[in-house]
TrEMBL record:
It holds the Pfam family adh_short. Residues 1-20 are annotated as: Disordered. Gene3D superfamilies: NAD(P)-binding Rossmann-like Domain. Residues 1-19 have a biased composition (Polar residues). Belongs to the short-chain dehydrogenases/reductases (SDR) family. Keywords: Oxidoreductase. It comes from Psychrobacter alimentarius. It comes from the Bacteria. Residues 39-204 form the Ketoreductase domain. This is Oxidoreductase.
Length: 274
């Protein structure tokens, strides 16, 4: 399976690097070869689904990828895939975001600083669905778990890694939202609320940093994508009717490349409805 992006896509971003690209230009980005050369990018939930394909794709475009996830065997598999196509040597960072402490995340910052020396981007992709049930019946322990993995740990990890990101020329932080994060929907409970909180966090970080740093914070909404999570959420749906993670990679690459340095505080739908 190729993780290079199909060059038959027609639209190409022609705007200058400091102008904010349109969302169409981000979705249809045609990454130049090696456009992520020299960058170090951390991907959470890198062992499966969209995160796995994003990690492979970033490596294909020249990045050194730091693979964070909770299942070591899955990270090892992605590590081997990157090595097999000659990508830069990745690093595995096993971490269960549910139980991870702030002290562990600060240690991670120290480790990346010592062993790699730089961090140019984070794709906060790890996520869990939790229950699909009315809030009245939502299990409160499950609620806390979903909020921790999808939101609180995302905040903690961002804060812990900010010193490294601020040292980068143009640090890019990409959060992952969802349609139910932008428009909360009945029965989506903690998942929808956690994603809404993530969108708010991206907005606040943007306001707090845009005049004083080169950092950019944005959210992506992948839209319905063929993964295990989607199959659990919509068990009656034909997975073949959905885009694959590979299909939506142009936007993920664009937001890590220097072509998007003018893009700040956006929520970018990668599969907008017509
Ligand atoms: P997925 O196939 O279920 O993958 C989720 C990833 O997150 C896995 O690698 C998983 O690790 C990791 N993860 C879960 N809990 C974790 C924890 N406690 N600590 C560390 N890692 C953890 O889901 P996906 O569809 O690729 O979703 C990726 C992101 O896109 C999520 O944020 C999701 O909310 C969002 N999204 C997806 C869709 C869609 O249609 N697929 C639509 C909108 C938004 P393990 O494999 O080790 O469990």
């Amino acid at each position: 399976m190729s993780t290079k992006i199909d060059q038959s896509v027609e639209t190409q971003a022609t705007q200058s690097r400091t102008e904010p690209l349109t969302h169409d230009a981000i979705r249809n980005f045609l990454p130049p070869d090696n456009c992520l050369d020299g960058k170090t990018i951390l991907v959470t939930g890198a062992g499966d689904g969209i995160g796995r394909v994003a990690a492979l794709t970033y490596a294909r475009y020249g990045a050194t990828v730091l693979l964070l996830g909770r299942t070591s065997s899955k990270l090892e598999y992605v590590y081997d895939e990157i090595e097999s196509f000659g990508g830069k040597q990745p690093a595995m960072l096993p971490m269960n975001l549910e139980g991870a402490t702030y002290a562990e995340m600060q240690q991670l910052e120290g480790l990346i600083n010592k062993e790699v020396g730089q961090l140019d981007g984070i794709l906060h992709n790890a996520g869990m669905l939790g229950q699909l049930t009315p809030l009245e019946m939502y299990d409160v322990d499950m609620f806390a778990e979903v909020m921790k993995v999808n939101f609180t740990a995302t905040f903690m990890l961002t804060q812990a890694l900010l010193p490294l990101l601020k040292d980068a020329d143009h640090g890019s932080i990409v959060f992952t939202s969802s349609t139910v994060g932008t428009h909360p929907r009945a029965f989506w409970g903690a998942y929808a609320l956690s994603k809404q909180a993530v969108e708010g966090m991206s907005d606040i970080f943007t306001q707090e940093t845009q005049n004083t740093t080169n950092l950019r914070f944005n959210c992506v909404n992948p839209g319905g994508t063929r993964t295990n999570m989607r199959a659990h959420a919509y068990p009656g749906e034909n997975p073949m009717s959905l885009k694959t993670p590979e299909d939506i990679m142009p936007g993920y690459v664009c937001l890590m490349s220097d072509d998007s340095i003018g893009v700040r505080g956006q929520v970018i739908e990668l599969q907008p409805k017509d």
